[in-house]
Amino acid sequence: MTPSETTNNTLINESNRIVIKIGSALVTDEKTGKAKQNWLNCVAADISYLKSIGKEVVIVSSGAIALGRNALGIDYTNRPSSIPLEQKQAAAALGNVEMTRAYAQAFAPFNHQIALILLSPKDTEVRNSHLNARATINTLLIKGKVPVINENDTVSTAEIRFGDNDRLAARVAQMIGADLLIQLSTTDGLYTADPTQDDSAQHIPVVEDYSDDLLKMAGDAPAGLSTGGMKSKLEAARIATMAGVTMMIASGKIDNPLKALLSGAKATVFKAADKPLTARKKWISSHVKAQGALIIDEGAAQALHTGKSLLPAGVAKVEGDFIMGDAVAIRDMDGHTLAIGLMNYSANESRLILGHKSADISDVLGYSRGDTLIHRDDLVLQA
């Protein structure tokens, strides 16, 4: 077994939740402007295998704009940057239908349903939108579905866009606490120089530190259908690894790219310093300001110290005015701060359901966002 085979096998086998980013150049045939259905069928087979060994898989896919151009009479060989925004948005509206159809067809033989999710930057950056998007993706994964995520190009403006799906994939991986982000690309990783222009360019198998020299190795986005390039992938790697997500750049130019990784295909691995949950809790404890407080009883306090979530039944009082996604302090009956966490319900909602069993939330509010006021993954105990 080769070192790369060992590394790739270990990374994938030790990762429970995996985000796979697929670019336009892989999804769309540049000569015809249509989906590469045979290639998508092979990727679906790879993902179905990963699911069969217990992995949760989320796809972040480009390709909607490229697939929608034909219907609008736009030359599909044009660079995306040369197309006016309103035409790109119209193409995305048409292309998302085609992209969804292609993925659905690819996964049908394996009895896996796909679910299309369109995200804008606020869905990963604004706390209440972030929590809603995360809850939707988590629900789909629990139900065994395959989320396929794309930027909401139809309504995004030039000023509020991710700009490319490399960074979107990193934000999604961060948001859902993924263990691994695999960026399938037209190249098999990072090189010391552009290997298509420099025969002496050497492949870099592992990156542990970021520097200006590293960014200099990345060129501009390639010609053709893509909006990203190696530079955007390095920016995505910085986002992902800071959030505790290891990232891999691997070639998607072969029929079964994920199985190839398991068999030792070349790739560049960007190592995360922390596990996703550790990184998330560091962020909560150091960057989030409490907007209110929950006073809890002794039973709830004991439950928190054993790693449990905070349920409404254990809350005696709600202080302050906050919305879903805000941080609050959690205090015992003597006023000692025990923890800080991110709320699944607003202050007004919390006052209505405090003291109630989780099963009663829907009866009290008329709806439910889940059984917990604060999930244990969004809660940091104070020393």
Please write out the topology.
Elements: H1 3-13, E1 17-22, H2 24-27, H3 37-52, E2 56-61, H4 64-72, H5 85-107, E3 114-119, H6 122-125, H7 127-142, E4 146-151, H8 165-176, E5 180-185, E6 190-191, E7 203-204, E8 206-207, H9 212-216, H10 230-242, E9 246-251, H11 257-262, E10 267-270, H12 276-287, E11 290-296, H13 298-305, E12 315-320, E13 327-331, E14 337-342, H14 347-353, H15 361-365, E15 379-381
Parallel strand pairs: 1-2, 1-5, 2-4, 3-4, 5-9, 8-10, 11-13
Antiparallel strand pairs: 6-7, 9-10, 11-12, 13-14, 14-15
Provide an overview of this structure.
By secondary structure, this protein is α/β, with parallel strands linked by helices. The protein has two domains: 3-276, Carbamate kinase (3-Layer(aba) Sandwich), CATH 3.40.1160; 288-381, PUA domain (Archaeosine Trna-guanine Transglycosylase, Chain: A, domain 4). Helices cover 39% and strands 19% of the residues. It is built from 15 helices and 15 strands. The chain has an eight-stranded mixed beta sheet, sandwiched between helices. A five-stranded mixed beta sheet has the order 12-11-13-14-15, with helices on both faces. It has a two-stranded antiparallel ribbon with strand order 6-7. It is globular and about 70 Å long. Mean pLDDT is 87; it is low at 223-227.
